[in-house]
Amino acid sequence: QVQLVESGGGLVQAGGSLRLSCAASGRAFSNYAMGWFRQAPGKEREFVATIRQTGRDTYYSDSVKGRFTISRDNAKNTVYLQMNDLKSVDTAVYYCAASLLATTSSRNYGFWGQGTQVTVSS
After folding, report:
1. Could you tell me if 51 and 72 are in contact, meaning their C-beta atoms sit under 8 angstroms apart?
2. b/e sequence 60-78, b meaning 16+ C-beta within 10 Å
3. How far apart are CA 60 and CA 110, in angstroms?
4. Confidence class of residue 26 from pLDDT cuts 50, 70 and 90?
5. Using CA atoms, how far apart are residues 1 and 28, in angstroms rounded to an integer?
6. Strand ranges inside the chain, DSSP E
7. d(CA 82, CA 69)
8. Quick one: 32 exposed, middle or buried, by C-beta within 10 A (0-12, 13-18, 19+)?
9. What does the pLDDT look like over 29-88, one tens digit per residue?
10. Which among 24, 27, 111, 112 is least surrounded, fewest beta carbons within 10 Å?
């Protein structure tokens, strides 16, 4: 089992920045690729970013590429999502998730956090 707890969400104006954190406990954090997903009201959960176990490889959705950065600190059992130049369309609940593979499909992630709300005002 891996327990995940997100933090860092909040209300921010368009063009602003936020950094989300996801702290992991339980099984060895470094064994897992980590992903961020988001879900806006009335929409399906969508992939945002993922990072491999070593942190060397990252992948982003086209909608956030160039604005968001995923990173991890295996010594602290934490994955981060730095979000810059936020837009109103980024408003959603953001979830971190753990998987043995760094994929874009939520079906491959077996462990999920409870989510943190990000609201971008225009």
Report:
1. yes
2. bbeebeeebbbebebeebb
3. 20
4. confident
5. 10
6. 2-7, 10-13, 18-26, 33-39, 46-51, 58-60, 68-73, 78-83, 92-99, 111-112, 116-121
7. 5
8. buried
9. 999 999 999 999 999 999 999 999 999 999 999 999 999 999 999 999 999 999 999 999
10. 27
- Name the burial class of residue 12, with classes exposed (0-12), middle (13-18) and buried (19+) by CB atoms within 10 angstroms of its CB: middle
DSSP sequence for 95-116: EEEEESS--S-GGG--EE---E
Task: Yes or no: say if 33 and 51 are a contact pair by the CB < 8 Å rule.
Answer: yes
What the block records as the tokens of 116 is 């943190």
Judge contact between 57 and 81, C-beta under 8 A. Answer: no
Name the one residue in this structure whose structure tokens are 């891996």: 2
* Structure confidence at residue 9 (pLDDT): 97
Tokens 């956030």 map to which residue? 64
